[in-house]
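Worked example 3 (structure in, sequence out).
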């Protein structure tokens, strides 16, 4: 995974001349001070407005200081330690900068508000001498600094080694040291004053003026010898040194059984210093990102914001906003901008849909759906309360009774990978085998667990969506089911309006009309506070005989509200009671027609043709 990303990131680095790294880097809270060692301290203070920057949480930088911020951004990146374990000051870890051009300090480490803390004189009231001397010794007094010594031991990088010995570098070090020796007390007092003026409690970062390319050279002198996770595993060849990268890799000496015994090296991966630095910058880029999900991209445009979602290849990657890549997959096929064939969402059962101030009306047929993202939104709204989205693989909805019950969460978790595969990878292989169960369960769970009373909302449309999914995948019997339901919806009203004896023709009609009766009877309830799951008793029965008994009990409860002259109702209830289904157990197919009857436009509330 990281190898694939490194290729794309290297292309972006080359294309932007390294700008992508700095553009996604941010300054930490604190005080930033730019010092020109060629000027006196008083002259630097006189230009404070152009040399001082403060970074605080939830506070934007003044527009006039954006140029100064850019100056600090690049140099701060080139002067920061890889990690706390890689500080130049390996003992006390009070020095957080990595070169002689800067001083990064915690304010309370180098500056004291209490003169007794280090027995300072009155003039040196705020200066902690031990810490200051340690800083000078680490970066200026030592004949050969630790970073310089390590860099000299690495094979190659001749340009950096020439720079280490150059007169230009040595003169710059001397100039900065002279400034520090002459102004240390006054400099610390100035910072102390700024600390209280701007109410800062964390860091002060001092930068001595130098070109960005000089800062970069010093960065490489520090980073190349320190970039590997553990130098014990380094291997030197005639082409250079190779080691274990610091990022996305772990070694534990207490677990020797994890070592690779059959390889020339015991560790899983060895890379060059350049590749290790590239990997570090890649993970710095990830750490700077907010949580995101990318589904398709050209490898060379992954790190280009404008082209992130436009591509032919399919590479899927998800980041959690903390520098962690929690999902990565590279596929030889892609999801296009259109579905392979039209998705037909028709109102087969003539269900009603909420139409804002108009109330409920028979939903109109939709135009054929070709955009997979539109279909995703519809499926998410009607099946999963809008919890299907780009990062569905990494988020888990919270259970909420009456809204998102536990059964719905289980269905969501068991089907989200298949749904992700369809909508974002363009493959039907995982979704097609489970679409029948998924869509039926999505409707049934809502009907029994999240519908309050008889307020279905758009649940009838959810059932129509189930039928549309079955037809899209051409499931066995899907077209026959649609034809049967259309016929039942179109003919049952006239059939049961007859004044002669009416008989039910088959099991599908029996369960559909039973659902119609169940809805009509339960809708007679006059209770002000209706409960969730009023239809659960009807849908949970296992045998047709129990279903008939359930309808009888409902009729006894609500018979007072039903007119004796309601011929259609009496015919339907009588026909249900005398019909004997072929199958003595209610299975999924039968329950499906029962749900369709409950959710379809109810014939017992429809006006007779003569009244229209």
């Amino acid at each position: 995974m990281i190898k694939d990303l490194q290729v794309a990131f290297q292309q972006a680095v080359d294309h932007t001349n390294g700008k992508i790294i700095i553009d996604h880097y941010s300054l930490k809270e604190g005080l930033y001070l730019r010092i020109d060692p060629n000027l006196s301290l008083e002259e630097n203070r006189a230009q404070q407005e152009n040399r001082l920057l403060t970074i605080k949480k939830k506070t934007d930088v003044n527009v006039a200081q954006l140029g100064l911020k850019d100056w600090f951004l690049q140099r701060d990146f080139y002067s920061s330690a890889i990690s706390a374990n890689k500080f130049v000051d390996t003992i006390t870890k009070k020095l957080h900068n990595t070169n002689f051009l800067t001083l990064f300090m915690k304010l309370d480490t180098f500056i004291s508000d209490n003169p007794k803390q280090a027995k300072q004189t009155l003039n040196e009231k705020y200066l902690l001498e031990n810490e200051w001397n340690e800083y000078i010794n680490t970066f200026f007094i030592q004949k050969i600094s630790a970073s310089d010594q390590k860099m000299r031991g690495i094979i190659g990088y001749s340009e950096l080694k020439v720079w280490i010995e150059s007169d230009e570098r040595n003169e710059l070090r001397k100039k900065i040291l002279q400034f520090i020796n002459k102004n240390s007390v006054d400099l610390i007092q100035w910072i102390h004053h700024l600390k209280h003026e701007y109410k800062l409690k964390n860091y002060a970062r001092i930068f001595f003026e130098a070109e960005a390319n000089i800062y970069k050279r010093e960065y490489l002198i520090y980073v190349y010898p320190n970039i590997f996770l553990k130098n014990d595993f380094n291997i030197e060849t005639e082409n250079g040194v190779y080691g274990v990268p610091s990022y996305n890799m772990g070694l534990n000496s207490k677990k020797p059984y994890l070592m690779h015994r059959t390889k020339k090296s015991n560790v899983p991966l060895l890379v060059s210093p350049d590749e290790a630095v590239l990997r570090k910058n890649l993970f710095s880029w990830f750490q700077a990102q907010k949580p995101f999900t990318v589904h398709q991209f050209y490898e060379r445009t992954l790190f280009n914001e404008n082209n992130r979602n436009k591509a032919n290849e399919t590479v899927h990657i998800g980041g959690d906003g903390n520098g962690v890549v929690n999902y990565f997959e590279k596929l030889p096929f892609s999801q296009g901008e259109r579905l392979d064939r039209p998705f037909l969402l028709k109102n087969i059962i003539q269900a009603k849909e909420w139409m804002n101030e108009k109330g409920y009306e028979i939903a109109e047929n939709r135009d054929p759906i070709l955009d997979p993202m539109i279909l995703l939104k519809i499926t998410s709204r009607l099946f999963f309360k809008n919890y299907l989205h780009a990062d569905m693989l990494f988020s888990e909805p919270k259970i909420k009774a009456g809204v998102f019950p536990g059964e719905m969460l289980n269905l969501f978790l068991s089907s989200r990978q298949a749904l992700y595969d369809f909508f974002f990878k363009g493959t039907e292989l995982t979704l097609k085998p489970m679409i029948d169960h998924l869509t039926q369960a999505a409707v049934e769970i809502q009907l029994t667990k999240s519908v309050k009373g008889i307020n279905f909302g758009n649940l009838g449309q959810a059932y129509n969506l189930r039928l549309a999914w079955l037809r899209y995948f051409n499931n066995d019997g899907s077209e026959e089911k649609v034809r049967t339901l259309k016929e039942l919806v179109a003919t049952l009203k006239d059939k049961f309006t007859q004044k002669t004896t009416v008989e039910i023709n088959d099991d599908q009609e029996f369960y559909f009309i039973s659902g119609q009766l169940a809805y009509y009877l339960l809708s007679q309830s006059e209770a002000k506070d209706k409960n969730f799951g009023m239809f659960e008793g009807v849908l949970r029965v296992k045998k047709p005989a129990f279903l008939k008994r359930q309808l009888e009990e409902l009729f006894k409860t609500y018979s007072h509200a039903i007119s004796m002259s309601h011929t259609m109702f009496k015919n339907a209830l009588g026909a249900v009671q005398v019909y004997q289904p072929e199958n003595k157990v209610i299975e999924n197919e039968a329950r499906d027609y029962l749900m369709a009857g409950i959710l379809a436009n109810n014939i017992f509330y429809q006006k007779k043709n003569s009244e229209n």
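Notes: Residues 147 and 222 are 5 Å apart (CA to CA). The chain has four domains: 21-226, 229-288, 352-472, 488-611.
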